[in-house]
Amino acid sequence: MSSFVAEVIDIREESRVAGRQRWQMALDRTEFGTGDVGVLEAVARSGAKLVVPVLGVVIEAGEVWHLVEKPLAAGTAVTGRVGASVE
User: Fold this and answer.
1) Residue 87, pLDDT score
2) Which of 40, 46, 78, 83 reaches 20 to 30 Å from 67, CA-CA?
3) Which residues are CB-neighbours of 49 under 8 A, at least 6 positions away?
4) Cβ-count burial of 44 within 10 angstroms (0-12 exposed, 13-18 middle, 19+ buried)?
């Protein structure tokens, strides 16, 4: 399992089906590739640890977008863990 530190640079809604949303997040750097899953970890302003599962990856025009159900705000520092599962 590899890990890396990055920052969220962009988010966009991928889909909304039956009230459930999926989002795509771009990071300033990543070690996720096509077919990879894992988690992104961040710390909220309150100090709580946030763990966001990465459900997959989409590459469009050279940009890597991480598929998630809970987006993090642009500017959020994250630790990515490729191959990790939510505990």
Assistant:
1) 62
2) 46
3) 41, 42, 43
4) exposed
φ/ψ of residue 52, rounded to 5: -115, 115
Q: What is 2-82's CATH number?
A: 2.40.30.130
The H or E element containing residue 27 is: strand 20-27
Q: What's residue 17's pLDDT? A: 83
Is residue 30 within 8 Å of residue 76, measured between CB atoms? no
Which tokens sit at 5?
Answer: 């530190």
Please check the confidence at residue 40 and state whether its pLDDT lies above 90.
yes
Q: Cα(first)–Cα(last) distance of the chain, in Å? A: 15
